[in-house]
Amino acid sequence: MMGSMLDRPAQWISKEIFPALALSSPFLRKLLFWMIAAATITVGALAVQLTIVARPFIGGLDFYYYIVTARDLAQGAPDVSPLRYFYFPGVYSFWKAVFSVSDGSLASLQWAYVAVLWANAVLVGVILATLTRLWQAGALAASVYLFEASRIEGFAGCTEPIATLPFLMGLWLWIVMGRAGQLRAGLMALASGFGLALYVKQHGGLLALGAIGLLAALKGNDPHRRYKVSDFLILPIGAAGVFLLAVMLEGGGMAVVRMGLLAAHEYQPHGSWLEHVDRVYGVTRPVADLFFAGCAVWAVMLIARERVPAVSDAVMLTLGLTIFSALGGLLQFSKRSYLHYTMLLLPSAIIAAGLAIYLVSE
């Protein structure tokens, strides 16, 4: 079984990168296969070790504000300031849940945040491996997520990884349900992910712009994955419904929505959007380069769709969805250049880059 799992990437490497190996003995090819597997596992182990070493240093001003507020809410303190709703309440709901299942120590809270990073990495890897059927691609993508997080304030205890968790879960369920022919159920799962991402953070709603990438499904090659125009109404209606339901269950009501949106609108800008994006681009290379290459691949594939019908609709739609989700995430840099904002679009950018590499190699 392991041999078959290693076969496709190793064949591509042996034929495209090392042509001589394609004609060599089976022993050399099998040795190359196992070297790829060993390198992939080693990189993954190093990425996990990085998060373990960084765990005691997780923290920051925002992180301590979230956990102190969540602690007071969990203990039923009567004087918790309503100004907490400058941030949407999903972040407090998450940390309240952590307090309810832990001893509330700083170490346990830091481990909870590490678990969030691991969960994001796993979902990124599972999504990519599901679409490419290459476990190595998934493992490398998961490792890249953790390494990249260390470069963009991902270990500061920020909100973005909490917001991307429901988005990634919804994306994965959409892929799985689409394969089973449950298109509307898959769209509702994706809509729920959009809604919960918004519930955690105002900027999380920008991920919903990924729906633009699904418009190609109106003329897909696979009739089982072809949507009607009416199907797309599931996304905004479902996302809004899930978001409002979560807000009502939290107890703040519509005042939460008004205060949160007002706070985001009145946030004072520093610098220009182009300056901020340029800074992020410089820090996140080469992932950023691969992502923009993925945008070009998607555009070419979309134009030449009838000439390359062998490309899976699931791959093309996911590529488009993640591209527009990541591009939507760039809009949050219109006011500030905080690097941790990049954590919101990082999963989508890595998935898009990985799928682009897969399509080109095919």
Question: What's the topology here?
Answer:
Blueprint: H1 2-17, H2 19-22, H3 26-54, H4 61-74, H5 90-101, H6 106-132, H7 135-149, H8 160-179, H9 183-200, H10 234-250, H11 254-265, H12 273-284, H13 287-303, H14 313-329, H15 346-361
What does this structure look like?
The chain contains 15 helices and no strands. The chain is mainly α and 362 residues long. Helix content is 68%, strand content 0%. The protein has helices at 2-17, 19-22, 26-54, 61-74, 90-101, 106-132, 135-149, 160-179, 183-200, 234-250, 254-265, 273-284, 287-303, 313-329, 346-361. It starts with a helix and ends with a helix. Helix 7 packs antiparallel against helix 15 (346-361). The longest helix has 29 residues, at 26-54.
